[in-house]
């Protein structure tokens, strides 16, 4: 090889190495790869159990990236903190708690190979069995020997078995895998959701537009394999999976804003027809296609409605299908825009007509839920808000869609008589649930004159327009924080009536709070008045909307509605409601 060719070769190698080095600098994090020491303990039990019922209680050691800390070998013991359900006074209780325990470990390089993939030892996670004999509200404290740190569990409500008609189950039903623009395989996502995030139910919603098709032909059987994976992990009474898919209008006209809103579609049964924005161009075309090709019931709703590139169009609405709305995810909150939005979304629209509050004003009867919208393969507990969003974090990926997620994920708590696919679907359809941020299992009750969320179509009927409404709210906050020897408390309880702040209790700073509010003002309902008239002379709910509306239809038809927002002292939140109040005809 002559000198000239050698210099060219060396130049090419230098360019390749420079590009590789730059890529490593931008997207790889060696602290993530080689640091996995315990930072906190996460303590998790079921939200509702019966007196003397044996239940599983899991302790996970987390590092500062919220991953299982595989090398942890600490020793822990257990205590119980108990309260009377009616008075919320502290009380003594009888329970059978585990003995002192020392964690075992056999992991190496657990920052690269996740601890939950290594068998033969605890590796940062241990499940115990316990029971509680005294009805009430209970927290389990895990005490780390040596440091003396206390870690507090989520609230566990213990009732007599005859009093339990529904239990509270937790799930994440919005996530993406390598079948579209996420990370890992569906099997990995479900196993993580079940075994590490400890969910009761889950759903993947990969973008349908990523599935390879040739007309009606499912190339390489990818779509059917996706459905098979979902059904394979469905285990009634243990871990429920829902058949679901995301319809994603951003692909209709690449490079332009499309405002139908991304829609996640969930099915009651074990199959679904294929659909795509390449074929079904509007939400109404989508709903018609599914009705024509599927005998199972289905529901659908939008998310990140305030993101300017993916804004939602609430003019498209079907009350039998659009039963909920995702108020929060890794993208932030779409409750409202401006200063009262707890978690501002990137590229957030500062205009009327796109938020959850405005949708409710339009008469859209959405229940409130949240999910993660994870793209990092960790369904139920994404960590893309930490430095572990990097590409060398398992599941490994070259997808950039787990970058720029500034917030933790979210969960939905559902009240259901049973843990099976039909019951979970029906709970979603009846709006029998609420939303939390992060992995919080806050326990929240909300009723008006005894009518709870999800009961009677979440609607209270009163005899006259001035009948007094008693709003009762119970909040028991999850004890989890990312600081050792610190626990979370309730900060504020705020009640919104017709999308306006109506009443509140501030700076509570307690683990438990029961609050009563009374309203005897005349029931008048509300309407949405910020519609616009475009150059075609027709009215639209906002500038981006593509479907004309009749302004007279943008109202609650005289019904008032209330929802509750709870914040905690470590930056978390929960939303429950709405409950509508109508005058009996």
Say how many strands there are: 35
Spell out the CATH superfamily of the largest domain.
Metal-dependent hydrolases
Query: What name does the CATH topology of the largest domain carry?
Result: TIM Barrel
Number of helices: 7
> What is the helix fraction of residues, given as a range?
10-25%
Supply the number of structural domains.
Answer: 4
The Rg value, from CA coordinates, equals 25 Å
Structural summary, described in words:
By secondary structure, this protein is an alpha+beta fold. It is built from 7 helices and 35 strands. It is globular and about 90 Å long.
Give the helix/strand layout.
Elements: H1 3-27, H2 30-34, E1 40-44, E2 48-50, E3 55-62, E4 75-83, E5 90-91, E6 95-96, E7 101-102, E8 125-132, E9 136-144, E10 150-152, E11 156-159, E12 167-172, H3 186-195, E13 201-202, E14 213-214, E15 217-218, H4 222-232, E16 240-241, E17 243-247, E18 263-267, H5 283-293, E19 298-302, E20 324-329, E21 332-333, H6 356-361, E22 367-370, E23 410-416, H7 421-429, E24 433-437, E25 443-448, E26 451-452, E27 459-462, E28 469-476, E29 490-497, E30 500-505, E31 512-519, E32 532-533, E33 539-540, E34 560-568, E35 573-583
């Amino acid at each position: 090889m002559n000198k000239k060719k050698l210099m060219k070769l060396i130049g090419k190698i230098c360019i390749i190495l420079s590009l590789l080095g730059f890529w490593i600098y931008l997207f790889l994090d060696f602290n993530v790869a080689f640091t996995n020491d315990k930072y906190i303990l996460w303590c998790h039990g079921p939200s509702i159990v019966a007196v003397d019922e044996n239940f599983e209680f899991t302790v996970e050691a987390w590092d500062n990236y919220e991953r299982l800390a595989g090398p942890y070998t600490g020793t822990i013991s257990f205590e119980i903190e108990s309260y009377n359900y009616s008075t919320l006074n502290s009380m003594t209780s009888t329970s059978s708690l585990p003995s002192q325990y020392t964690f075992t470990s056999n992991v190496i390089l657990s920052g690269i190979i996740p601890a939950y993939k290594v068998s033969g030892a605890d590796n940062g996670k241990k499940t115990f069995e316990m029971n509680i004999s005294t009805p009430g509200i209970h927290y389990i404290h895990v005490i780390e020997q040596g440091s003396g740190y206390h870690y507090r569990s989520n609230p566990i409500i213990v009732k007599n078995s005859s009093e339990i008609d529904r239990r509270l189950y937790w799930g994440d039903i919005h996530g993406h895998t390598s079948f579209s623009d996420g990370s890992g395989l569906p099997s990995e996502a479900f196993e993580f959701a079940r075994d590490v995030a400890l969910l009761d139910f889950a759903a993947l919603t990969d973008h349908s537009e990523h599935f390879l098709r040739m007309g009606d032909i499912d190339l390489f059987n990818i779509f059917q394999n996706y459905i098979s994976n979902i059904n394979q992990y469905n285990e009634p009474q243990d871990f429920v999976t829902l058949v679901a898919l995301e319809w994603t209008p951003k692909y209709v006209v690449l490079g332009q804003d499309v405002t139908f809103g991304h829609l996640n579609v969930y099915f009651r049964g074990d199959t679904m027809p294929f659909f795509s924005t390449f074929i079904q161009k509007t939400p109404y075309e989508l709903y018609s296609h599914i009705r024509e090709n599927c005998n199972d019931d289905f529901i659908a709703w939008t998310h990140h409605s305030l993101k300017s590139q993916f804004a939602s169009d609430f003019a498209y609405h079907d009350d039998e299908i659009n039963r909920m709305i995702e108020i929060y995810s890794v993208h932030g909150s779409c409750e409202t825009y401006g200063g009262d939005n707890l978690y501002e979304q990137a590229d957030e629209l500062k205009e009327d007509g796109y938020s959850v509050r405005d949708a409710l004003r339009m008469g859209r009867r959405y229940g409130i839920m949240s999910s993660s919208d994870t793209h990092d393969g960790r369904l139920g507990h994404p960590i893309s808000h930490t430095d572990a969003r990097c590409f060398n974090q398992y599941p490994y990926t070259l997808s950039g869609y787990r970058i720029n997620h500034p917030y933790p994920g979210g969960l939905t708590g559902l009240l259901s008589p049973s843990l099976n696919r039909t019951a979970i679907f029906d709970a979603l359809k009846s709006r029998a649930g609420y939303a939390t941020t992060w992995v919080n299992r806050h326990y929240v009750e909300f009723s008006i004159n005894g009518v709870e969320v999800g009961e009677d179509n979440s609607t209270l009927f009163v005899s006259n327009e001035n009948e007094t409404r008693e709003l009762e709210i119970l909040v028991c906050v999850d004890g989890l924080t990312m600081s050792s020897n610190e626990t979370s408390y309730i900060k504020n309880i705020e009640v919104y009536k017709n999308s306006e702040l109506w009443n509140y209790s501030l700076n509570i700073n307690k683990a438990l709070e029961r609050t009563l509010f009374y309203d005897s003002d005349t029931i008048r309902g509300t309407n949405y008045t910020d519609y616009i008239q475009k150059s075609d002379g027709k009215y639209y709910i906002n500038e981006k909307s593509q479907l004309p509306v009749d302004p007279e239809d943008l109202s609650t038809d005289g019904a008032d509605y209330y929802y509750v927002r709870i914040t905690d002292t470590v930056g978390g939140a929960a939303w429950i409601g709405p409950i509508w109040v109508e005058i009996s005809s």
